[in-house]
Amino acid sequence: MRIFLVGMMGSGKTTLGRQLAQWLNYAFVDLDEHIVQQQGQSIAQIFEQQGQEYFRKLERQALEELVQKYERVVISTGGGAPCFFDNIYFINLHGESFFLDVPVEELVQRLLTQGQEERPLLAGKNIAELKSYLTETLTYRRQFYERAKHTISENSLSPESILSLLNL
Ligand SMILES: Nc1ncnc2c1ncn2[C@@H]1O[C@H](COP(=O)(O)OP(=O)(O)OP(=O)(O)O)[C@@H](O)[C@H]1O
Ligand SMILES: O=C(O)C1=C[C@@H](O)[C@@H](O)[C@H](O)C1
Ligand SMILES: [Mg+2]
Questions:
Q1: Which of 19, 72, 152, 161 is the most buried (most CB within 10 A)?
Q2: Is 42 annotated as a binding residue?
Q3: Which superfamily does CATH assign the domain made up of 2-162 to?
Q4: Three-point CA angle 66, 67, 71, nearest 5°
Q5: Residue bearing the CA closest to ligand 1, atom 18
Q6: Which residues of the chain have pLDDT under 50?
Q7: Cα–Cα distance between 105 and 25 in angstroms, integer?
Q8: How far apart are CA 117 and CA 122, in angstroms?
Q9: How buried is 152 (Cβ within 10 angstroms: 0-12 exposed, 13-18 middle, 19+ buried)?
Q10: Is 78's C-beta closer than 6 angstroms to any atom of ligand 1?
Q11: What is the ipTM metric for this complex?
Q12: Which residues surround ligand 3, an ion (CB under 5 A)?
């Protein structure tokens, strides 16, 4: 089985994905980290030097490569990954998807305390700007995230709740 975690920046995809892969004894891939390693550039550098559009193409290519390569894997996607091209359909075609649905107030707290620097879309924003950016972005992205096969709310972000949704 392939398990994909989707949701906003700061929703906990990397943290939970790593834990879940350990539980299942599956491979773990963080899509952002995978792209950074493959390109030898940080996400911020890719955005700056080649642009966001190029980054979105890299995300799609990486998704295609990873489903070819792995059958038992947990993939934590980047915050925007399911919202470009037909990526969310591609994800659903190749595995079980989970939307980590965390309220904006909580995202703001987490992202303020955990460096905005590696997240180019958040860099340089103050708390009010961060909040309005996340609110607007989530309002638009929800239509994609909600196409995930399962939704997990903030208070059940654990490997156990994912396993029980999968009847494992
Ligand atoms: N369940 C949780 N409760 C509280 N804090 C959490 C939880 N999960 C993750 N965090 C914290 O929130 C921050 C963001 O988590 P993480 O990096 O896993 O999010 P992400 O969804 O992968 O974000 P991005 O899309 O930017 O990669 C980290 O500081 C992490 O320690
Ligand atoms: O929400 C987004 O668009 C992004 C989220 C991160 O995971 C990275 O993929 C990148 O910083 C863009
Ligand atoms: Mg992450």
A1: 152
A2: no
A3: P-loop containing nucleotide triphosphate hydrolases (3.40.50.300)
A4: 110
A5: 12
A6: none
A7: 33
A8: 7
A9: buried
A10: yes
A11: 0.96
A12: 14
